[in-house]
Amino acid sequence: MGTKKVKIRRRILVAFSAVLFFSFALTGIIFNVTITMFSGRAGLELAGTNAPEGRAGLVLVALVSIMFIVSVVASYFLSNSITKPIEELGKFALNIGKGEFTPNDFNFNELELEDLNKALNKSVQQLAAYDSEQKTFFQNVSHELRTPLMSIKCYAEGISVGLMEPQQASETILQETDRLSELVSDLLYISKIDSIATAYTTEKIDLLKIIRDSIERQQAIAEKRQIRFSYDLDSKAIDYVCSSALITRALDNLISNAIRYAASEIVISCHKKGNYAMICVSDDGKGVDPEDLPHVFERFYKGPNGNHGIGLSIVKSIVEQHNGRVSASNTEGGGAAFTMTLPL
Predict the structure, then answer these.
(1) Measured between alpha carbons, how far is 118 from 208 in angstroms, rounded to an integer?
(2) Does residue 303 share a domain with residue 226?
(3) Per the structure, how many domains does the chain have?
C-alpha cells in the first residue's frame, strides 16, 4: 500500500504553524509561571478574576491567539511563494516530455530555483538540436536507401522485360546491393556508437599491428586501382588500451576513404608523441576543398566521389568515444590528410 502524498504547501503550513503554536504556548507558560513566582501565589487563573495577574493572563492569551492567526496567514503566503515556482518548473518539465523544446523566460529571485531553471533551459536547447539532427538524419537515410533500391528495381525490371542484357544488369545490381549493404552496416555502427547505454570492452593492443592488418585487408582493392602504400611507423610497438573493434573500424574507414581519392600513393604514419599516439592517413589526390574541410566529419556530407557520407562521421564518433580527436587538412602536395590523436 503506497504512502499518501502530501503537497509541499500543506506540509510547510502545518509544520510552521505547529512550531509557532508550541513556541507561543511555551512563552505563555513561562510568563504565567514567572508572574506566579513573583506574586507568591500557588496558581493563577487566567479567566474569571479581577486580579492584575489574571488580567495580564487574559491579555497574554489574546496576544498569543492574534499572533498565531497572523503567523498562519503568513505561513500560507510563504508556502505559496515557495511552491508556485516549483509548480511552474514542473509544468515546464512535463512540456519537455511532450516534445515541446521551447525555452521559458522565467526569472526567479531564488538562486537555487534560477540555477534549476537555467539547467532545464540548457537541456531544452540540447534536446531541440538533437531532435533537429535526428529528423535530418532520417531524411538523409531514407534518401540514401531509396537511391540504390530504385536502381536495383529499374535493372531488375529491365531484365524481366528483356530491355537489358542480363549479365551487365546483374553486375550493376550486385554493385548497388553491396553499396546498400555497406550503408546498412554503417547505420548499425552509428546506432551502436551513439547509444548512451553502449558499453564496449577494452583491451591493450599494438596500434602498429592494427594498422598493418587494416592495410592487408584492403591491399587488393588498392592494387586494383594501382595505388601503393607507404609507411612511416615507430620502430617500437605502441600499446593502447581501447576497443580494438572500434579503432579497427576507424582505421578501415580512413584507409578506404584514402583509396577512393588517391592518385597513386597513400602514406600511413603512426608515432608516439608524449602521452598521445598520432595516426595520419594521407593521399596524393586533389585534396579537400577548403570550404568543405569544416564539414567532412558531418553525417551524410559527401565529397565528389563519396559513397554516402557516413564513414568519416563514424571515425569522429569512435575517436571521441576514446577521448581523442580527429582532424582533416590538405598536404603541401595537394592531397588530403586525416589525423587521429589518441591519448595513451
Answers:
(1) 47
(2) yes
(3) 3
5: cell is 502524498
Q: Say yes or no: 16 and 91 in one domain.
A: yes
Residue type, 21: F
- Give the three-class secondary structure for 66: helix
Residue 137 lies in a domain: yes
DSSP 8-state symbol, 107? -
For 22-49, write each residue's pLDDT tens digit: 666 666 666 666 656 555 544 444 444 4
- Nearest CA among 183, 243, 237 for reference residue 207: 237
Longest dimension (CA), the chain: 126
* pLDDT per position as a tens digit, 207-248: 999 999 988 888 888 888 899 999 888 888 899 988 888 898
pLDDT tens for residues 269-298? 999 998 999 999 999 988 888 888 888 888
Q: Quick one: which of 267, 287, 289 has its CA closest to 279?
A: 267
Cβ within 8 Å of residue 324, ≥6 positions away: 340, 341, 342, 343
* Domain final residue pick, 166, 194, 222: 194
Mean pLDDT across the chain: 77
